[in-house]
Amino acid sequence: MLDRGRSKDVARILLACIRLLNGVAAVVAPGLLARQIGIDPDKNPGIRYVFRMFGIRTVLIGIDLLVQQGDRRAESLRQAILIHASDTLAAFLASLSSNFPQRSKLVVAISALNTALAVYASR
User: Which residue segment(s) compose the domain that 14 sits in?
Assistant: First the structure.
């Protein structure tokens, strides 16, 4: 069984890995990700820009969680709560729209998981 300190590190590293995986995918293959959540990037070409914009941000904050130490890591974790909670709220509010593809509700779940990991890791 993991002790509390070790399990917080696991949560932090898992959050960083999720960020890196999603961020790199968004930068490298934004059209593929758009299709995965039910958005046609050929009909909505701006989605590629949105994915890349959030992708690079996601990569950089993922790296912070792996590289930073001490007070800087603690600050990154506190910021992660706000970042992911606002992402979750934005995704949830967008999901209420009839224009929001049903498959993209997965984004709400991923954001909520990231929020939960950030809260746990920062405690």
Answer: 4-122
